[in-house]
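thread from #wetlab-drylab

HS: before we spend reagent money on co-crystallization trials with carboxymethyl coenzyme *A, can we at least see a predicted complex? here's what I'd submit
DV: go for it
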Amino acid sequence: MTSTPPPPSEKKDKPLSSGGKDTLTITDNRTGKQYEVPIENDTIRALDLRQIKVKDEDFGLMTYDPAYMNTAACKSRITFIDGDKGILRYRGYPIEQLAEKGNYLETAYLIIYGELPNKAQYEKWVNDVMMHTLVHENIKKFVDGFHYDAHPMGMLVSTVAALSTFYTDAKNIKDPDSRKLQIFRLVGKMPTLAAFAYRHSVGRPYVYPDNELSYAGNFLNMLFKMTEVKYKVNPVLERALDILFILHADHEQNCSASAMRSVGSSQVDPYSSTAGAAAALYGPLHGGANAEVLYMLDEIGSKNNIPAFIKSVKEGKGKLMGFGHRIYKNYDPRAKIIKQLADEVFEVTGRNPKLDIALELERIALEDEYFVKRKLYPNVDFYSGLIYQAMQFPVEMFPVLFAIGRTSGWVAQWEEMLLDADQKIARPRQIYLGSGSRDYIMMGKR
Ligand code: CMC
């Protein structure tokens, strides 16, 4: 199964052969015994398998599922993906509609609270978030301590973790008001931390937040303001960045959201959990892929070199970065939106010359049997980097931009996990295949 099971309203009628009973009958050929295991939401509970034993003293049957390829670790009401059909919805709303008609903070509210805000709720939320964009002055000293060429994502991971030492009230994770406040702070401060990391890496003075600007506009201002009294944010680029934040806001149980839930399940504060999630996002197979796409396009260099590059990928010498997805076995709907957005951005910034290589790479890959057979399509990261680069973001900032948008998803996943009575501290099992018991051998005798 590659997709999340459909929501209840979209389920087809149950097959007659189920006899009205949603159970799975398992026969253990070792003992001849039969077990009836309930099926709920097209899922069986792994713990129900523990009754399957040969001897009473046995531990019971477990499932083995490295990388959670077929294990639902939670019930969630936030994001729905149908990977075969290329559908993505936040709280039921199609991503295409949110990207076309909504804005990021409105979408973040939807993701976190479950409904689109009315005007009063929206204004209060925007105010609550924007009132928390400033960071403690000591954060600046903290950022100053990084080496001049420190990666901005490493700085972001560290500074967001450091916030837990500034807001010690954040450990009251059972207090709804405290959780609410930390969510304002996290959504509000991530762009500031990201911008400070960037300014430090280019040796420029930090720019304080300007709450008269929009969420994306303020971020652009903190990044690119120089000596002018008022930096003029380009409205096309501001809107494009806002849409990119919407597209990255949540993606159900991906590697970083799972890290957020897993770290948070120990009941640590949300800044520490967010640092864990951001660290997971940093990797080249996850949020780091957008930067890898640009390195790859640089390496390919010209359209003439594409066939040789594709050949090397097929020989297992590397991956076509920005292609493939654990869940999507169709075109990633976010990539479609980004591809259209690129045209609008390039009208302002000029065309990114790497676009031609990317388009040709996509064309060739989508016709090649290797990629067709494996259902490998462009994902969200294939085109996003081209836009970021045209907007003057250095490649190292790409995963940082992803992290800003994804923060609303992380905090929504975190709170849903905390409020879910089924959840406990995350603690997978293992299959131990190491040595049996043996006696210590003195060093001289080894
Ligand atoms: N280029 C070439 N071959 C690929 C690629 C790729 N990008 N992705 C998967 N394959 C092959 C893979 O080698 C395997 O082939 P075989 O069956 O012969 O062994 C087959 O396709 C199935 O792939 P998999 O590695 O089992 O799939 P997965 O679900 O474990 O990995 C993925 C998903 C996204 C990590 C992987 O497709 C990949 O590494 N893609 C490139 C990195 C990337 O673009 N990541 C961004 C993901 S979207 C945004 C995000 O989540 O952060």
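DV: The longest strand covers residues 23-27.
HS: ok that's useful, forwarding to the group
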